[in-house]
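Dock nicotinamide-adenine-dinucleotide; give full complex structure.
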Amino acid sequence: MSALSVIVVGAGAIGRRHIKAVRQAGDTVTAVVDTDIVAAREAARPAGSVAQTSLAKTLADEDADVAVIATPSGQHLDQSVLAVRAGLDVLVEKPHRVPGEVAAGLRASLGGRRYFVAMTTRHWPGIEATAHAIADGSLGQILTYTDRMHFRLAETDLPPWYFDATLSGGGVLLTNGVHAIDRARALVGPGLELDGARLVRVFPSHRCEDSAEIQLRNHTGIPVHLSLLWSPYASGNTGLTVNGTRGSAVVHMDGSWQLITGQEEQCGPAIEPDEPFARQWQAFKASRSGFDLEDLEPTLGLVERIYRRYTYA
Ligand SMILES: NC(=O)c1ccc[n+]([C@@H]2O[C@H](COP(=O)([O-])OP(=O)(O)OC[C@H]3O[C@@H](n4cnc5c(N)ncnc54)[C@H](O)[C@@H]3O)[C@@H](O)[C@H]2O)c1
């Protein structure tokens, strides 16, 4: 396959990881778009790309194959539609839309274009190993499934838009919960029933929930517990734990993992943060199944159901 030319939209922490992944694969970042021209220029310089502040102008000026969208979450759907209508394939950060938005216009515009939602944590080696072990039965009957994403945060640890639901679409349930729900759907789903939830704001200044405790159930009755937390006091014990009648799997939040079954014991080290973005770019180029609009829409549907039923205190 010849090298792809790519427009990266959003030159923040995550956009810069995508730029590295694209370049590492031998593809070209043609342009970096950021409303903050200084950020666009800084990210564009090492890649030898053009720096722009407007996606519409860049789409008109540049002849590119793919747009990678890594802006604040509330902008993903509109920017996806712009890029797809300009004839580009799209790799969009999660979530691909925020609660209340509908993907019908995007779906209608897709044609044959590839549309891939960035679910980086599914490209962690430990998650892939756990998925295989569940699918091939080596863990036996699944007894418990618990996924804890707990982050110790100070007020300024993330850009402020993350904590304003009018810009981000939601708090910890949307930003981190889409990963946890996506993993649960991929590992023990795809269908999950909602048994209960509790959303709480921890930081008085935030305009979103910082804590979400979610209880789900898969079609065979496996209880799925998701625990999501942004707190200045968050303590350890994070990651995914699956216990079965014949084995267990643990994947920590740094990506390190351990899988124990009757036959063997496997483990892997913490992963370097750029690695899942590189693996994801390869999966995008190979059009690996499981990451397109129809795969990810039910995850957003579940997030929306939780927000409808449980408002935060
Ligand atoms: N896949 C993962 O593991 C993962 C991890 C963290 C965050 N994310 C997601 O990545 C996305 C970006 O997060 P981030 O931490 O890099 O945020 P960030 O605030 O660091 O970066 C966003 C950038 O977008 C720019 N921007 C804002 N509006 C724009 C517009 N209209 N056009 C062009 N640029 C614009 C901002 O100036 C900023 O530089 C979010 O959707 C977030 O949920 C994904």
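Observed: Residues 8 and 68 are 5 Å apart (CA to CA).
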